[in-house]
């Protein structure tokens, strides 16, 4: 296809002005006496344009208010509140007249999970070669889970420091250097080697190699029995409270597939410093050494002695799936999919005071947008060629589990899904002048994203915190792994009436004071104009993708290109 967007219909100048004003959160402009007709660059038929205009900030507010209410108890995975949220979303889909896309003619896709709760009887000790054992305090000093899904596991194993724990041949990087780590516990850093070179681990942008999930997976593949990740706030991109809150209480896993760890853990930076010092080593120097290709694994001369005691609960949670069939006889078997996760962290009975993790921003906002998109698409009489799938997924906070299951068991084959547009944690703080679509540039759809953003008077902002690896931290990543071109839509840092510094300050305050904390609650003063603007932007993108004559692809050489080719 040509880069310029093809003209689909003509609308009046006032329609264009309405589109732009609505993107900024205002009301439509008054109709001029004698409107002229001109081409629009966003391919929306008149009926679709009218439906997009009905997207309303207050509709999104109502969904967020309900989904983040205390009565839903934080929408924990496999917990009562999470199940209520799923039924609420399914009911909305039914009210909109969407076709069930789950199992047995329902809107629900059952996701088989195993819940693991690390119990108080667990013992976790770091034993230096000389000196006293360091008996760590759960949640304050460390967090740990047993991935084997057994009630008890015992471990007495040597600790080997492996730097970043990365083996990446394409970057000529190998932290393991052929060392046999079978039966060992691996001490490692989060993130990846720092660089400004976009050809080396993509420069400042975090790749999947920097994610803790990769580090656990790679260690297990190499036969290690445990991993201890060292938490350093600037490297992890979030404070210890996020690690603590995300890894206390029950944690969910998909049923076992392949090798796993007896101990998957994090420790505070100070704990790692004490262990290194007790082993005659300097952690700062060890961290510096890990930044070079010459790094070799270091046997710490210390051991981890752990007695892991877990409550194991087998249960099912649900993805919620609905479909709006396409209008084209040949294309309707293909689809564009919208995703957002509805789960959060539930209730933590071990925490005093307010212990309900309501998850208003994360991710009742994404669900509110998803539902409003589904409603808007449902009222369009002349549908796009491809079908539209709306998926509210579970267990994102547990490691993208619901979307991983969806990627492996989609309602139609992944090779027939043109695009996934994901919404996660869209802060209700006003009218955005920027949009973030990190990862869109990796697809052949990006030129249309650029043109559409221009029509909406939105500047495309590069990932504000590329070192945080947001592309690998939300549900679109699960679908990208099976080849589906995927990215999330969110606001940037510049908002109407404020300078960029204000937006940066809002983001910083949220991450430090509310992200994965009970204070992420609905407040009446929240401004959902921006959430509605992101919904309209996504509506236009989804319609365009559903109207293409051929499927979207990943750019040549992208890490997901091979999966896309394999799926088709």
Structure in words:
The chain has helices at about 15-25, 45-55, 55-65, 80-95, 210-220, 235, 240-245, 270-280, 285-290, 360-380, 400-410, 445-455, 475-480, 500-515, 530-545, 560-565, and strands spanning about 10, 35-40, 100, 110-120, 125, 135, 140-145, 150-160, 165-170, 175, 185-190, 225-230, 250-255, 265-270, 300-325, 335-340, 345, 355, 385-395, 415-420, 435, 460, 485-490, 490. Helix 3 packs across helix 10 and helix 12 crosses helix 15. It is globular and about 75 Å long. The two termini are about 20 Å apart. With about 575 residues, it is an alpha/beta fold. It has two domains: about 40-110 and about 315-565, Aminopeptidase; about 115-310, 3-Layer(bba) Sandwich (Glucose Oxidase, domain 1). Mean pLDDT is about 90; it is low at about 1-40. The strands form five sheets. The protein has a 15-stranded mixed β-sheet that branches. Strands 22-21-24 form a three-stranded mixed β-sheet, covered by helices on one side.
């Amino acid at each position: 296809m040509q880069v310029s967007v093809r003209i689909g219909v003509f609308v009046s100048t006032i329609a264009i002005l309405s589109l732009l004003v609505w993107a900024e959160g205002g009301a439509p402009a008054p109709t001029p006496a004698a409107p002229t007709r001109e081409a629009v660059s966003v391919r929306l038929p008149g009926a679709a344009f009218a439906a997009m205009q009905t997207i309303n900030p207050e509709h999104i507010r109502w969904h967020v208010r309900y989904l983040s209410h205390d009565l839903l108890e934080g929408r924990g995975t496999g917990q009562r509140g999470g199940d209520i949220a799923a039924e609420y979303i399914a009911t909305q889909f039914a009210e909109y007249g969407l076709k069930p896309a789950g199992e047995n003619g329902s809107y629900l896709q059952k996701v088989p999970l195993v819940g693991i709760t690390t119990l108080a009887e667990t013992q976790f000790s770091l034993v230096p070669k000389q000196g006293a054992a360091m008996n760590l305090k759960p949640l304050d000093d460390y967090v740990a889970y047993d991935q084997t899904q057994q009630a008890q596991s015992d471990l007495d194993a040597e600790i080997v420091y492996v730097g970043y724990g990365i083996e990446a041949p394409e970057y000529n990087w190998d932290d393991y250097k052929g060392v046999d780590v079978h039966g060992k516990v691996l001490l490692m850093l989060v993130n990846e080697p720092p660089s400004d070179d976009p050809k080396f681990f993509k420069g400042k942008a975090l790749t999947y190699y920097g994610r803790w999930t990769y580090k656990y997976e790679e260690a297990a593949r190499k036969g290690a029995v445990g991993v201890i990740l060292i938490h350093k706030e600037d490297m992890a991109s979030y404070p210890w409270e996020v690690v603590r809150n995300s890894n206390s209480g029950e944690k969910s896993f998909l049923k076992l597939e392949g090798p796993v760890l007896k101990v998957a853990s994090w420790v505070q930076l100070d704990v790692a410093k004490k262990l290194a010092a007790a082993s005659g080593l300097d952690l700062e120097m060890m961290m510096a050494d890990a930044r070079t290709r010459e790094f070799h694994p270091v046997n710490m001369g210390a051991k981890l002695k752990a007695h892991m005691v877990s409550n194991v609960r087998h249960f099912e949670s649900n993805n919620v799936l609905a479909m709006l069939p396409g209008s084209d006889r040949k294309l309707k078997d293909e689809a564009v999919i919208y995703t957002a996760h509805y789960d959060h962290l539930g209730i933590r009975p071990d925490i005093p005071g307010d212990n309900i993790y309501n998850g208003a921003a994360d991710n009742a906002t994404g669900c509110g947008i998803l539902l409003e998109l589904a409603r808007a698409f449902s009222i369009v009489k002349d549908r796009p060629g491809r079908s539209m799938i709306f998926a509210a997924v579970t267990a994102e906070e547990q490691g993208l589990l619901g979307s991983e299951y969806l990627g492996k068991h989609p309602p139609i084959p992944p090779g027939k899904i043109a695009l996934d547009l994901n919404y996660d944690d869209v802060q209700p703080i006003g009218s955005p002048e920027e949009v973030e679509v990190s990862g869109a540039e990796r697809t052949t759809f990006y030129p249309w994203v650029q043109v559409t953003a221009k029509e909406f008077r939105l500047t495309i902002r590069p990932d504000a915190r590329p070192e945080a690896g947001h592309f690998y931290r939300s549900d679109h990543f699960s679908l990208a792994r099976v080849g589906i071109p995927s990215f999330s839509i969110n606001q940037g840092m510049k908002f109407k009436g404020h300078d960029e510094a204000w937006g940066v300050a809002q983001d910083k305050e949220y991450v430090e004071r509310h992200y994965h904390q009970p204070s992420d609650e609905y407040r009446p003063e929240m401004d959902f104009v921006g959430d509605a603007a992101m919904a309209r932007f996504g509506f236009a993108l989804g319609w365009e993708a559903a109207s293409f004559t051929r499927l979207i692809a990943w750019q040549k050489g992208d890490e997901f290109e091979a999966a896309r080719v394999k799926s088709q």
